Amino acid sequence: EDHADGVGMGIFNGDIGRIESIDPASGLVTVDFDGHRAAYPPDMMTQLELAYAVTVHKAQGSEYRAVILSAVEAAPMLLTRGILYTAMTRAKELLILVGDDQVVARMAANDRQQRRYSGLRARLARGGPEKEENHGPAPISSEPALPTQVSLL
């Protein structure tokens, strides 16, 4: 059964689906999310994001029939054994490594884990979030954002 936005169908932000059909007359796009179908009219297309390629972080928890891993120079914190392992284990049937074999060797040898700083310890030490008029989410970190990941295709 088709649902207009996947509500009640077990479709969540971050799920990856495959476009099943596009009705040229109405513009209705039907997407299959691993057996769950959802139909999106043109005014809801902003709910979808094309994913020809995704980062290793985005791919965590998902599997793909085939994965192409681009192994190229990047920030050392991105060239880790954990990232390589995650990328390689996303492939069900076929893994293609493209790039520099020395980069892959460095990744396999780099077992350092990146620390994540959420600022939680500092907030707890202050007694919780500061009282403000705006009750939106607290910032996760005051540190500058770091580049994302080695790409999967």
TrEMBL record:
InterPro entries in the record, alphabetically? Coronavir_polyprotein_1ab (IPR050534), P-loop_NTPase (IPR027417), UvrD-like_helicase_C (IPR027785)
Per the record, the domain of life is: Bacteria
Single GO biological process annotation from the record: DNA recombination
Where are the stretches annotated Disordered?
Answer: 120-153
Ranges for domain UvrD-like helicase C-terminal come to 50-98
Which GO cellular component does the record give, naming just one? exodeoxyribonuclease V complex
Q: Does the keyword Nucleotide-binding apply?
A: yes
Keyword list (alphabetical) reads: ATP-binding, Nucleotide-binding
For this protein, the record's Pfam families field holds: UvrD_C_2
For this UniProt entry, the molecular function terms from Gene Ontology, in alphabetical order, are:
ATP binding; single-stranded DNA helicase activity
UniProt protein name: UvrD-like helicase C-terminal domain-containing protein
List the taxonomic lineage: Bacteria, Bacillati, Bacillota, Clostridia, Eubacteriales
